[in-house]
Automatic annotation (TrEMBL):
Catalytic activity: L-glutamate 5-semialdehyde + NAD(+) + H2O = L-glutamate + NADH + 2 H(+); L-proline + a quinone = (S)-1-pyrroline-5-carboxylate + a quinol + H(+)
Biological function: Oxidizes proline to glutamate for use as a carbon and nitrogen source.
GO biological process: L-proline catabolic process to L-glutamate
UniProt GO MF annotations: DNA binding; DNA-binding transcription factor activity; L-glutamate gamma-semialdehyde dehydrogenase activity; proline dehydrogenase activity
Full protein name: Bifunctional protein PutA
Lineage, broadest ranks: Bacteria, Pseudomonadati, Pseudomonadota, Gammaproteobacteria, Cardiobacteriales
GO cellular component: cytoplasmic side of plasma membrane
UniProt EC number: 1.5.5.2, 1.2.1.88
Amino acid sequence: MLTKILQDQQLPALSPTEFFPLIGKTYLEDEDICVNRLKESLTFDATTSNKIRQETFSLIQDIRSKPDIESSLDALLREYNLSTKEGLVLMCLAEAYLRIPDKASADAFIKDKLTGIDWESHRGNSDKSLVNFATWGLILTGNIIDVNEASGIFKRVCNKLSEPIIRRATYQAMKVMGKQFVLGETIEEALSNGRKLRDKGYTYTFDMLGEAAMTEADAERYFQDYKQALLAVGKESPLPKSPKPSLSIKLSALHSRYNVANKDLVMSELFERVKELALLGKEREVEISIDAEEADRLELSLELFEKLLEVNEIAQWGGLGLVVQGYAKHALPTLIWATLLAKSKKTTIPVRLVKGAYWDTEIKDSQVRGLNNFPLFSRKESTDISYLACAKYLLSPMAQNHIKPQFATHNAQTVTAILNISDMANNPHFEFQRLHGMGEALYNEVMEKRGCSVRIYAPVGKHHDLLPYLVRRLLENGANSSFVHQLVDPEVTIESLVEDPITLLSQYDSIKNPAVIYSDNLYGKRRNSRGLNSNISSTWNPFSEAYEKFLQKNWEASPIIGGKNVVGNPFVESYSPADQKRFVGKVSTATIENVETAITTLQNAWFDWNALGFKARAEIIEKFADLLEESREELIALCSLEAGKTIQDGVDEVREAVDFCRYYAMEARKYQDEILFRSATGERNTLSYSGKGVIACISPWNFPLAIFLGQVVAALVTGNTVLAKPAEATPMIAHRAVELLFEAGLPQSVIALLPGDGKLLGDRFTQDPRVVGVCFTGSTGTAKAINRNLAERDGAIPMLIAETGGQNAMFVDSTALPEQVVHDVLQSAFVSAGQRCSALRVLYLQDEIADRIIELLKGALQDYVVGLPFERKTDVSTVIDERAKAGLMAHIEKLTAAGKLLAQAPESSCQNGFYISPVIFEIDSILELEKEQFGPILHIVRYQRDDLPRLLDEVNRTGYGLTMGIHSRNDTFVNDIVERARIGNFYVNRNQVGAVVGVQPFGGMGLSGTGPKAGGPNYLLRFMSEHSLSINTAAIGGDAALFTQAYAVDEGNQSDHPAKEESSSSK
C-alpha cells in the first residue's frame, strides 16, 4: 500500500483507524524492502541532484568563510569526542558528578575518573572559553591527584587542601558545561536568556527537563511544571521576526505507568492530564508538541493523540502536535496516518520531523529481547534517506493544509534538499528546528539567505536533572561522524559533506549494516532464542490469540518410562496457584516400583545412546529447541496455569530453555573428536569423553521448563540417560517437554519422567548405585540431604551438581542514578514474585541517597498490580502454594510487628490464589535474617561509606554466595566489592536476575551451590568421564613415520597445542 501511495501521490480512501495497523506491520518490515521503497520515492533528476550538491557546497563554504562559526558546545563536543578516552570520561563526569550528595564519594569519583587521563593534550586546542575552562579545570584536578599519588611529602602537605580544590574545580567545570546544554534553570530564566536570539529572528520550543516518571508524585510535579511553563510562555508575544515560543512535553513524564500494558490508565488518567495541558495551551495560544520516545510506545501515543483530537476544542485549535522520528521504519506510515487523522477532524497537525534520539537504546533492546528485527535503520545513510522521503511527503499536496511541517536537522545537505523540495512543491509553509547550543552557524546562514523560520529546541531545568537529555546529546553529537562536527572541521573536505544519502548508501555492499547484529546472530554460530514484543500490535495480537486458546485447555501428566505413559497409578487433580478454582489438569504420580523399572530401562539404554556420538545427539537437541519455539504459546500458557507465571516470565522461561538446548548442543560438538597430544616419537596419546551412565535430574518449580530442560539436555547431550524428577507443583510442563523431546527424535528409552513425592522417590533413586550422578536445583537443606544419601551408599563415588539458594545483596553508593537503581531493584526483588534463587533480598543504600531511593520505591509500589498471571498489566502474580505463602506471611508479620515496614504494594483483588503483595522492610543487618525468604520481600540496610568492608564481611558470613548487584559510577568502588565478596555472579549497574545462557554462566559458591556454572563452558564436563589412550606405535618393530621424517624437508615445528583427529566420541 505504501508503494502505491507514493507512486500515485494520493492518500488512500481509508479512515485513520483502518490505516493504523500498517504502522505496526511496517515495524516488522525487512530493512532492504523499506529502504528501497523510500529510495524510489526520493529519486531526483540529474539537474536537481546537481543543484542540491552545488548549493550545499556553497552553503558550507560560506559558513566556513566566516569567523567564530562554532558554538561553545559544538567546540566542546568536538574537542572531547567519544572516540577518545577523555571524551568518555567527560561524559561520565557530566552524567553523574552534579548529583553526588556527599564530599567523600565526590572526591573518590573524581579520583577514579581523572587519574591518568591526558587532559594536557587538549590545552589551547580551542579558542572557546568553555573548552579551555573545562580543560584547565580537569588539568588542575588531574595534576593534583597525580602528584598526590607520586609524592608522599606533597600529599601530607596539601591533601586536605586538594580535595576541596579538586571538588570545586570539577563542579565548576561540570556546571559551566551544563549551562551550555540548558537555556535556563527556570522557564522565566530561559525566556530571558532566549530574548537575544529571538530578536535575531529565532524562536523557541521549551523542553522542561523530566521524563520517565517513577512515581505518581513525580508525574504530578512534572505536570505542574508544564502548566507553569504554559502560563509563562503564554505571556510572551510574537516579535516582528520571531513567532511565539512553544512547549514540548513527554508523555512518560506525565504518568508513571505510561506503557501498553496499562493502556486503560493511559487512555483515562494520562488523557485527562494532556487534555488539560492542551486546553491551557489553546487558551494561552502556546502550541504543544508531544515528543517522540521509544518505538514500543509509538502506537499507544498515537491512539492517545487521536483521542485528544476527539475533543472539539483541541481539534479546532490545531496547536497540538506530534514528533516523528525519521530513523524509524514506520515514520512514513505514521505521517500518512496523521494526515488522514487531520483530514477526518478538519484540522491541521504540527509535525516535527527529527532524525531520532534513541538509536543505541533501540538496537540493544531489540537484541536483548531476541526480536531479530529493529524498528529503525541500521545505517545513518538510510536514516537520511527516510528523513528526506518523509520531508518530501510532508511538503507534498497530500499533506498540505493538513500538516504543518517542522524539520529538525543539523545536516547542511538535508537542509538544502528540503529547500529544493519545498521550491518544487511550491510549499514554503514550514519551519526548521535546531538544538540549543548547536547548529548556530548553519542556521544563521540559512536565515540570512532564505529568510526561513527557525525554532530552537531548548531544555529548561536544574542541571542535576539534565542526565537523560545530556547523554542523548553527547551520544548523538559526540561522535566523529556527527555532521555538527564535520561542518566546522577544516580537516573534513566539503566534497565529503555534500553527497546525497542515496549515493553514499550505494557505496556499501548491503543496505543492512553488518556491524549491527540481528539478535538471531548475536552469539555467532549459536542461534539466539526468539523473544516477543508485546507492545506492538502486529506481534502481540497473533500471540495473544493463540495464548488465550491454550489457556482453555486441560492437561494430563503421568510417569513416562520407555516412551510410554505409565497407566494404573491414581490421578490427582491440579488447580492453578493463581486461582484455586481453575482446573488445570490431572497428574498421575510415580511409585517406588516405577523407580526400579525406570532405572533398569535407562541403564539398558545407556550404551547405545552413548555410542551414538556427540554430533548426532546435538542434532536431536537442536531440533528440540526449534520445537520449543514453535510451541511457545502453549508452553507459556501452561507456565501461567501451573506455575502462576506472568506472560513475560513465560516468554523468558521458554527463551532460556531454548538457549540451554542450543548452547549445550554447540558445546557438545567440541567433544566429538578425540584430542591428540604432542608426544614422543613412536607414541600416540589421546583424550576422549563419554557419558557417565544414568543421571537423576531433580528440578524446581520456579523454573519448571528452563531449569528442568537445562539439566536434562546437559545430561542427554553428553551421552547419559536421564531419570527426570520434576517438582511436585509443576509436572505437566515437564511432561509436555518430554513429549516434544520424543517428537524431536530422542530415543524413547533414554529418558524417564517420574512426577511425584520428592522425598519418597528421591530417597529411593539417590540410594541406588546404578544412578551415577545427581543434578539438583532447589533448597540448600534438600541438597545436603541428597549429598548424605549419595555419601552413605556403597560402590563408586557419585557425581553431585547442586545449585541452591542465596541471601543476595545489592550495594548502592551515592554516585548511582536513583531512578536506574529503583528500576533495577524492583526487577531484581519482585519479578517472578521474588521466586528466583538470584532475586535480591537485601539492598544496601549509602545513607546520603537512601531517603530518595526509598521515597521512589514507596511511590513505585503504590502503583504495582498484583494479580492474575494471564493479564498483561500484572506486575506480580502468585507464589507457588499455601505452604510458601504461610512461611512468607509469618516473616512479614514478624517484621511488621517490630515496626520495620517501609512500604507494601496494594493487595490483589484475586481471592482464590496464593498472593503476597511486594513488601519492603528496613533492618539493621543481614545477619538478622535467619534464612532466605523465597518471595517478594525486600530488606533495606542503610550504611556509611566507611562501613563497606564490615558489611561485605557480614554478607560473606551468611555462607551464601550466589548473586550480588552493584550500582555505582565509581570503578574503584565496584572493583573493591568484586575482590572482597565471595559471590558467584556480580551484576553492575543493571538488575541481578535473568542470567543469559552462554554469556553470563550462572551458579554460586558456599551454601549456594557446588558449581560448575549452568550455561557456561565448564558445565558439560561434570556430566562426562574422561578416557586417556596411549598407544606404542613402534611396538611392531620400528617406526615408519620416523624413518620417513628423517628424509623429509623440515616444514616447521609441530604445534604445542593439542590437535584434534577424527574419532568416535565415546569409549
